[in-house]
Amino acid sequence: MSEPLLSVEDLHVRFNTEGGVVHAVDGVSFDLARGEILAVVGESGCGKSVTAQTIMGLTRTTNAEHEGSVRFRDRELLTAPNSELRKVRGAEIAMIFQDPMTSLNPVHRIGDQIVEQILAHEELPEPEARKRAVELLDRVGIPQARERMRSYPHEFSGGMRQRVMIAMALSCGPEVLIADEPTTALDVTIQAQILERIRELRETEDAGVILVTHDLGVVADIADRILVMYAGRIVEQGTLDEIFYDPQHPYTWGLLGSITRIDRERPERLPAIAGLPPSLADRPEGCHFRPRCPHEFDKCPEKPPLEPRGGAAGHCDRCWLSPEEKRAKRMVQGQIGLGSKGAVA
User: Distance (Å, rounded) from C-alpha 122 to C-alpha 174?
Assistant: First the structure.
């Protein structure tokens, strides 16, 4: 196999707060290949965005502690000086932030903000940078792109601001794109257009994409592999088919079970995962999911490793139940995956 484009190894991120030490990311490891779309899913507060921001070097605050490794090609980013990270951000690794209204500068015109990024990373005359900015806005579907270059962020709708963020992210042809909830609060038509732009980047630039989201419908449409995170840890990882057709962790069952199924009778009420995610400053011992898990047993207070438990080597989960026990319990509660491949998942 070729070397991964981006490799995260045993990443830990802690924040020292008045309420205690918040373990936002707890031993996360994954690789991203060229041309791959990797989805990171889970409830709010599970560590998805902190993981993404740490890759970009955006969690370097005075109360933060980091351990592990983040390697981009042959460079270590976790301990790289800020001067080196500034050369990487935007040019080689770009990020679409969750809230474009707070990510764009409200007192500067849209066009100026895109041009500023291009000029910061490339030695181009300003007219050439402006021409590229217009082309990028047109490419992401902003009508009358040349005229809208002079608009301010508040003059755009939420969907159009998100397209501006995508244009800015694509402005220097990055090798890695991190998209943090890029379709949140957008209608399905705009969602489809944004996902199409992400596919174009993968296909034209052979870029790797990390898609951070809680929308499993978006994941099913675009992802190649999936990481399921809970309370700062990866609890399951595998290909799209492995996660959707043969989920192994009870938390993944809960996420998939909350999706409306068009091939089944409409329920009176959608199933929900009982309880709330734990405070990352006071996590349960062992399996962090056990206080909410209906299948807890005497081994759960021990920390389960993330490892294959039968099946494909790349399909790993963090649960002490055996594959046979999981299959039986999913059958009882009706969690048989989302597949139609001729066999019960």
Answer: 13
User: Which DSSP symbol is given to 89?
Assistant: B
Q: How far apart are CA 152 and CA 106, in angstroms?
A: 7
Angle between helices 323-333 and 250-257 in degrees, nearest 10: 30
Host H or E run for residue 16: strand 6-17
pLDDT in tens, 24-80: 999 999 999 999 999 999 998 899 999 999 999 999 999 999 999 999 988 999 999
Residues with Cβ within 8 Å of residue 313, at least 6 apart in sequence: none
Is residue 232 within 8 A of residue 280, CB to CB? The reply is yes
Distances (CA, A) of 185 to 58, 64, 193, 214, 272: 24, 30, 14, 12, 21
| Residue 1 pLDDT exceeds 60 | no
CB 78 within 8 A of CB 252: no
Burial of residue 135 (CB within 10 Å: 0-12, 13-18, 19+) is: middle
Q: In this structure, are strands 93-96 and 75-76 parallel, antiparallel, or unpaired?
A: unpaired
Radius of gyration for the chain, computed over Cα atoms and rounded to the nearest angstrom? 21
Could you read off the pLDDT of 88-126 as tens digits, one per residue? 998 999 998 887 778 899 999 999 999 999 999 999 999
Cα(145)–Cα(141) distance, rounded to whole angstroms? 8
Find the angle CA(192)-CA(193)-CA(197) to the nearest 5 degrees. 115
- Give residue for tokens 């399905």: 188
DSSP 47: S
What is the C-alpha to C-alpha distance for residues 148 and 136, in angstroms, rounded to an integer?
12
The reported pTM is 0.90
Residues 299-341: tens digit of each pLDDT? 999 999 999 876 667 899 999 999 889 988 887 766 545 443 3
Environment class of residue 327 by beta-carbon count within 10 Å: exposed (0-12), middle (13-18) or buried (19+)?
A: middle
| Residue position matching structure tokens 């066009």 | 111
pLDDT band at 19 (very low <50, low <70, confident <90, very high): confident
Helix (H, G, I), strand (E, B) or coil at 34: coil
Distance between CA atoms of residues 225 and 109, nearest Å: 37
